[in-house]
Specification:
The protein has 16 helices and 18 strands. It has 504 residues and is of the alpha+beta class. It folds into two domains: 141 residues, Beta Barrel (OB fold (Dihydrolipoamide Acetyltransferase, E2P)); 258 residues, BirA Bifunctional Protein, domain 2 (2-Layer Sandwich). The strands form four sheets. The protein has an eight-stranded mixed β-sheet, sandwiched between helices. Strand 16 and strand 17 form a beta hairpin. Helix 8 packs across helix 10 and helix 11 packs across helix 13. The radius of gyration is 29 Å and the shape is elongated. The mean pLDDT is 93.
Length: 504
């Protein structure tokens, strides 16, 4: 039998063995994993309630004689003979413990042998030390869970980035910055929900497994339902289901949920990610841009001290009106060698792509070539919030064509810090036009484009029932959180990012 247990340094193996020995002793006493301690208080709540040193003196606190019950992880201990100090950490923060042998009796002797990382429960009263630090003076103390693996030492912490991602459970214990990111992530999502609910939007849930992958140009993951003997796809976007609901009369709806795209992994991409999608009947892409701008500011107000954020080496101002700029104008300004007449000349755009080192395929029309040039030469320069509007119809198969120019659509993408944050447009509600675009997407797929869409006949049927004029929006929650927390990698805002497995 092969032992697949990872090789650990001798000292760590020894520490784990010592801790297992302590656990076995607890088992023998029948007190290894008690489950009857009831927490009544939290560290940060106590810190906030008694922060005023002039009001809450040692004498005042002791005279109050208020009993508190707190539980958490032992993060530090300093045994000083008949008395000891310790740091306890719970979900809210940290607080100091003052533990005296005269008050605790036998449990104090037991405490001396507990380890940093152990989970404990403490009942006591509030006090303040000679140095003025708020503390809990223990009257009883219990070991609730024995930690068998030592935490990283306080000097070096969990500094290896890859280890932090793989052992997020340790990262959250020892790195307060990591905890703060995920607290802010939750607050951002909550702020978005509250803001949309106040605008009369209804939150809905749509299928995660699709018969036909659609709603975005992306390569899907495939699975199989055994009972029905049916191939299914993990959704790349909820768009087509959400618009079916708008057909059904749910005129303001949104969904915050997971999408799955079988694409590369990078600092900006994860195969599983969180997306907000919303649809508003009787709204154009202009109203959706207004909505997007308001929603981003609402999220920022929740987690930032001001409307300014530093992200990836850039200072970003969210307080000013977001710029609105057409894709063609942006490409022309950043590429003076490209003439206006070249934009819709396929041969000319191929030549420009070659000169710029932009890869392209023979099947690409002028719209796809324009997008490739934009992504190469413009996208990274869009540091301040900018809506790029009027995307080519060729790369916008679900967007409504512009009334004045059928080669363009009423579509926008929001860029902040050189990264795409949101995508929205006036929805295509012409069933015949949509059917023709699906057919063209099928041609592109047959021509080798793995990201092109399938033909969804049921969605066409829904459009034939009648989709009102509608505006739609998709926001990458992970990237939005990256921006609002100043995180440089998407892995920093995902609790469990995808990584290549290592041999255990």
């Amino acid at each position: 039998m092969t032992d697949n247990t990872p090789e650990l340094p001798i000292d760590e193996n020894q520490l784990i063995a010592e801790r297992r020995g302590k656990l076995h002793a607890l088992r023998a006493q029948g007190i290894a994993y008690p489950n009857d301690f009831i927490r009544a208080d939290y560290a940060q709540d106590l810190q906030d309630a008694y922060a005023d040193k002039e009001q809450w003196t040692t004498e005042t606190l002791q005279g109050m004689d208020k009993t508190v019950q707190i539980a958490g992880r032992l993060m530090a201990k300093r045994v000083m003979g008949k008395a000891s100090f310790a740091q306890l950490q719970d979900m809210s923060g940290r607080i100091q413990l003052y533990l005296a042998g005269a008050d605790l009796g036998d449990s104090y002797e037991a405490f001396k042998h507990w380890d940093v990382g152990d989970i404990i429960g403490v009942t006591g009263v509030m006090t303040r030390t000679k140095t003025g630090e708020l503390s809990i003076k223990g009257r009883s103390i219990r070991l609730l869970t024995k930690s068998l693996r030592p935490l990283p030492d306080k000097w070096h912490g969990l500094s290896d980035v890859e280890q932090r991602y793989r052992q997020r459970y340790v990262d959250l214990i020892v790195n307060p910055e990591a905890r703060e990111v995920f607290i802010k992530r939750s607050q951002v999502i909550s702020a978005i929900r509250n803001w949309l609910d106040a605008q009369r939007f209804l939150e809905v849930e749509t299928p995660m497994m699709h018969y036909i992958p659609g709603g975005a140009t992306a390569k899907p993951f495939m699975t199989h339902h055994n009972a029905l003997d049916l191939d299914l796809y993990l959704r790349v976007a909820p768009e087509l289901y959400l618009k079916r609901l708008t057909v059904g009369g749910l005129e303001r709806i949104y969904e915050i949920n997971r999408n799955f795209r079988n694409e590369g992994v990078s600092t900006r991409h994860n195969p599983e990610f969180t997306m907000l999608e919303l649809y508003e009947a009787y709204a154009t892409y202009n109203e959706i841009m207004d909505l997007t701008e308001g929603m981003v500011r609402a999220a920022a107000e929740k987690v930032l001290p001001s409307m300014h954020v530093h992200w990836d080496g850039q200072d970003i101002d969210l307080s000013k009106p977001f710029r609105r700029w057409t894709m063609i104008d942006a490409v022309l300004e950043h590429n003076p060698h490209i003439r206006t007449d070249d934009i819709r000349d396929v041969a000319a755009m191929r030549s420009h792509c070659d000169a710029l080192g932009v890869r392209h395929k023979p099947s690409y029309g002028w719209g796809k070539l324009l997008l490739e040039v934009f992504e190469k030469t413009v996208e990274h320069t869009l540091i301040q919030p900018t809506f790029i509007t009027q995307h080519p119809t060729e790369v916008s198969p679900l967007a409504r064509a512009n009334d004045l120019d059928a080669g363009l659509t009423d579509r926008f993408e929001l860029f902040i810090g050189g990264k795409e944050i949101a995508n929205g447009f006036s929805e295509l509600n012409d069933s015949e036009d949509q059917a023709a675009r699906f057919a063209e997407q099928v041609n592109q797929k047959e021509g080798g484009d793995d990201e092109a869409m399938h033909f969804d006949a049921d969605y066409i049927r829904a459009l034939e029932v009648g989709l009102p004029p509608t505006g739609g929006l998709g926001v990458g929650i992970d990237r939005l959180v990256m921006m609002l927390t100043g995180s440089n990698s998407i892995r920093d805002v995902l609790l469990f990012p995808y990584m290549r497995p290592v041999n255990d």
